[in-house]
TrEMBL record:
Keyword Lyase applies: yes
Protein name as it appears in the record: Indole-3-glycerol phosphate synthase
Coiled coil ranges: none
Keyword Lyase: yes
Organism: Chryseobacterium geocarposphaerae
GO molecular function: indole-3-glycerol-phosphate synthase activity; phosphoribosylanthranilate isomerase activity
UniProt record similarity statement: Belongs to the TrpC family.
Catalyzed reaction equations: 1-(2-carboxyphenylamino)-1-deoxy-D-ribulose 5-phosphate + H(+) = (1S,2R)-1-C-(indol-3-yl)glycerol 3-phosphate + CO2 + H2O
Keywords: Amino-acid biosynthesis, Aromatic amino acid biosynthesis, Decarboxylase, Lyase, Tryptophan biosynthesis
Domain Indole-3-glycerol phosphate synthase stretches: 4-252
């Protein structure tokens, strides 16, 4: 069983538990459900392109940083020029929570990506109710048909979609309604990271698709290399979060670009 299989198995249980506690109607009645969302398609072009991620831990790295406050960190990311914020909401494998988005939403005026493993319609209503603007669809967890249906549902709810792919086969999950395509440099089976991976797959994407290089961007050279290869966005988590002061690490990074 791969780590992704384990995550999905646990996620199904988590969704079933959530459904028994909070109805769809309660989600629709919540404070943020009707809010206008921010567009990552816009900010990815108008700002640095960096989607800075708040991530306490991960299956590949264990604990990265569980000492810092989401609000302090992501407010600084916004102030310093991030195009968007990614927040892991998975608890068991990433140490995240819905509250991490809920508690920062009123203070953040750039798009927030709900980073989770989306496999059920219910989660899209959750995403809207917690104040997210964008959702991640991981091709490895979905069929092309589910990807299409979840994209349509996201748009009905006013959410944008970042489709994550890792293999050539997964290019078949792309449909023209997708807002942005992320190419994960990290193989989720063995956690190996290879930037060439995103460069290769990017060349196979339709032209004019907004593309995001995800994972394993560990220095400024990586950023410039991927930018030169035509990427619009750069999803970066660990590089900032591994520092005692992630905001300072972000500031130093962005002052060089
Ligand atoms: O990071 C992991 O170990 C991981 C394992 C299984 C599924 C997803 C995983 N990561 C999620 C991500 O996509 C990354 O957090 C994100 O791309 C940022 O990566 P990095 O800059 O390398 O922290």
């Amino acid at each position: 069983m791969t780590i992704l299989d384990k995550i999905i198995e646990r996620k199904k249980q988590e969704i079933s538990d959530s459904k028994s506690k909070i109805s769809l109607q309660q989600l629709k009645d919540s404070e943020f459900f009707g809010r206008e969302t921010y567009s990552l398609k816009e900010t990815i072009k108008s700002k640095s392109g960096i989607i800075a991620e708040f991530k306490r831990q991960s299956p590949s790295k264990g604990i990265i940083n569980d000492k810092v406050s989401p609000l302090e960190v992501v407010s600084a990311y916004e102030k310093l020029g991030a195009s968007g914020i990614s927040i892991l909401t998975d608890k068991d494998f990433f140490g995240g929570s819905f509250e991490d988005i809920l508690n920062v939403r009123n203070h953040i005026h750039i798009p927030i990506l709900r980073k989770d493993f989306m496999i059920d319609e219910y989660q899209f209503y959750e995403a809207k109710s917690m104040g997210a603007d964008v959702v991640l669809l991981i091709a490895a967890c979905l069929s092309p048909q589910q990807t299409l249906e979840f994209t349509e549902l996201s748009h009905e709810l006013g959410l944008e979609v970042l489709l994550e792919i890792h293999t050539e086969d997964e290019l078949g999950h792309y449909n023209s309604s997708i807002d942005l395509v992320g190419i994960n440099n990290r193989n989720l089976k063995d956690f190996k990271v290879d930037l060439q991976h995103s460069v290769h797959l990017k060349n196979l994407l339709p032209e004019n698709v907004l593309s995001v290089a995800e994972s394993g961007i560990y220095n400024i050279q990586d950023y410039f290399y991927l930018k030169e290869k035509g990427f619009d966005g750069f999803l970066m988590g660990e590089y900032f979060m591994k520092n005692t002061n992630p905001a300072q690490a972000f500031e130093e990074f962005i002052s060089n670009i």
